[in-house]
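Thread: quick sanity check before group meeting

JM: Hey all, I'm pulling together slides for Thursday and realized we never actually wrote out the predicted structure for the chain we discussed last week. Dropping the sequence here so it's in one place. If anyone has concerns about the input, flag it before I start.
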Amino acid sequence: MCKQYLSHAILGLMLLTVLAAIIMMSIFGKQEPVVRPATQAGRFYDGNAQRLSHEVDSFLTLHAKDQQYDHVAALIVPHAGYYFSGNVAAAAYMSLPKDKAYKRIFLLGPSHHEWLDGASVNTEADYYETPLGRVKVDHEIALKLTVDNTDSVFTYQPKAHDREHCLEVQLPFLQRRFDEVPPIVPIIISTNDFRKLKRIAEALKPYFTDENLFIVSSDFSHYPSYEDACKVDAKTGKAVESGDVATFIATLESNAKSGIRNLATSACGELPIATLMLMMNNQYEVKHLLYQNSGDIDDHDHSRVVGYHAFAILRNSDGFSLTDEDKRMLKKIAYESIKDSLDGKGIAEANSSTKDRSVALQFSLFTIHSSLKEKCGAFVSLHKQGRLRGCIGHFGEDVPLYEIVAEMARAAAFEDPRFQPLRREELDDVDIEISVLTPMRRIQSLDEFELHRHGIYIRKGYRSGTFLPQVADEVNWTKEEFVGHCSQDKAGLGWDGWRDAELYVYEAIVF
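JM (edit): ok, ran it. Output follows.
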């Protein structure tokens, strides 16, 4: 009887143990994140976190007084060992404003180990690791690139990423330059098929916007003498500065046929550079930041060197731009406009003598920069807990920007017919998003219109209509379909009515 009781007790204890294990697994048994390890630590850069931080910071400090640019769309950065190319890489990273809040960073580099005949996106890794910590991968975008391209120009091939150094060596610089590194999209490009490069560029172009940063990893001349490297790299650098992919390719071919001794390549990252150029147009400016080659660092052998360039690709918003301070001022104006309205102050009426309206806010006109006095349109959107709470905009160029933002913020809060007027207790829970429409520019043909970047405004007689740039991100239309729908659905001119109408383009700066 005692033995039977004991066996039942043991069995019960075992069941309780198994049950506890199941519960613990359900609580803590979440799948561990996939981490791509720091395979190049101790090789291309120091494997000790403290020494690595000091090394990177030392390079960045050398360029502390270099000019920073507000509208950096992309960087071209070398990827050699830090001893050789760290100074040039630092020149590129110090051109970025430290407080710029990029949504994500696309890392494009060549394959040094595997032939892909396309592009490989790392859809497996959740993080990339360095001695300085982990950098998150934008898994959603990585998967979207592979799924949305049925022709398989984007795939995931693990061997293309396992030993590859060209993307990994960029991460410690990003970790020291930014307080928090935005999620990355790691892409290795390897194909001689120009049609595939164009398809890669077309797939990436919707992301080539002000909210994202592209970093192209490339060294330049490989293994000529010091003197020959300076000559070859100067030619290649000028071709990159042209921003024209045909000029760039022709220069590489000319260098290859020049008979220069030991010249293995003019740019090992020629394919990702060409992809970048295919996304650009004449609205981008290429700034050359610094050139050195390995002979400038270690002069014991000038017979065999590698060249390093740093470039910043700047986005020219049709001559109109807003600094981070301008954006902060506009957000403050929007908030204070809503708050003043809740306090019963409202917006002052037009001055009868000057016909100028002024906003009843505590801002001196002397503190408002000239860019905020530009006459352009704007939309203000309010979100509460991620859900739209109001959105009103003004499409036109008849009111200074700082005034229209104040008016549209008030209208979004209290006049959007889809929502009840904003209550005082909601104000601190509301996020304000401002879309500034840059001044319109008349175009003569659709060749000047860039899908995903430009909004279109069509006008003929008393009829007009517009699509914001963001509309292209929501539909799968060609350029002609985009304009046709705007002409038909918005302007009421019919599908082909735009052909003899006035066409204007503009951009939206969203923050």
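AS: nice. Confidence is low (pLDDT under 50) at residues 348-366. The CA atoms of residues 374 and 485 lie 30 Å apart.
JM: adding both to the slides.
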